[in-house]
Amino acid sequence: MSLFLEYLPKLQKSSPGQPEFYQAVQEVVESLEPLLLKEQKYLDHNILERIIEPERQIMFRVTWIDDQGKIRVNKGYRIQFNSAIGPYKGGLRFHPSVTSGTIKFLGFEQIFKNALTGLAIGGAKGGSDFDPKGKSNNEIMRFCQAFMTELYRHIGPTTDVPAGDIGVGAREIGYMYGQYKRLTANYDGVLTGKRIPWGGSLGRTEATGYGTVYFAHNMLKDNGNYLDDKIAVVSGAGNVAVYTIEKLYQLGAIPVTCSDSRGFIYHKAGINLETLKELKDGERNECLDKYVEKHPDAIYTPVTSYPEGRNPIWSVPCDLAFPCATQNELNLEDAKALLSNNCILVAEGANMPSTQEAVQAFLNAKIMYGPGKAANAGGVATSQLEMAQNASMTQWSFQEVDARLKGIMANIYNMASETAKEFNQAHNLVLGANIAGFRKVADAMIDQGAV
Is residue 373 among the annotated active site residues? Predict the structure, then answer.
């Protein structure tokens, strides 16, 4: 029996009804089995059970007043998973799908992602089931202020430094930062993703998308290949997708798709980045069907036309695939479609966007596969660079931040690749990334004793 199956009943009892969390744990634990067989110390110190259980789980009620004067109630979360190598670090997600299980899986992934960056940051995640869509600017401000009124006592520049995520951009970070400052009278780097005039970092907005492409570049280069003239399929239309598309163009590839919750665009000539940014800029978030009004040679497919259980974006002929939307958006049938079209690389810009069956299909086919915790670590890495700038009260140039990001992504790839080779699975960056990240955190936990 595998270690995961041995632990599953206890996991289900302590965290009932959280399948996404179980999925994230299973991937990590199964990857770690070769390491745990090789190095007994991790079992002796019960690291596995300790790392799976969060250090602290904070859940709270958020009450706010809408524009009609009605009191509204949402649920807020902050899961502080592991601080062995640094202060807690991870985003805040505002979306109606948010549950404790969503936050748990994201926070667990964040432990290893943050460790891979080589920077001093622990793992955490937070958010709320609040839906910013359809809300006025004033309603969003009041919600953010109410959310921070509950959260502020649990965070700090050397304790826990949240960032943005789905539904939380610079506007929301600004409202929360203002409330934190009002409550504490402190002007410090307690949040990242801030706007430039009040402590933000140049390059932070672009970092996750740019970093994902840098990771893909390293995978290709290590296999004697390049991005030049490669056809790329990208899902999503938020920051990650937009800046993945931008960096793909800069490095010579041709991205031909993008998507949102209502449908996807296929533009064989290449996605027009200017139009995409115009549609999705700031608070507008217009439907992608408007893209074809400016580009009649593009094809828009609404979600209502998707075949059951499939996302047809992954059937578009391509060399490279970049799932950048949300978790479990790419299933086994989608993976088969990509492989049948001779896709040679998948790099995950989103967190856990491929189901376990899809990941296994990629590994079995031995294509280049960059798991999210490695490929999309550029965002949190640049958040830590923002923390460093805040601590020294300086601001670096875009070029300096981008150069550091490029170096960090190369180091993450090399670390995952070398670790995979150590265990005789050179093509398996899932195993390499999980073991490399786990080792760093687990060794720190052993050094710090039973805490």
Answer: no
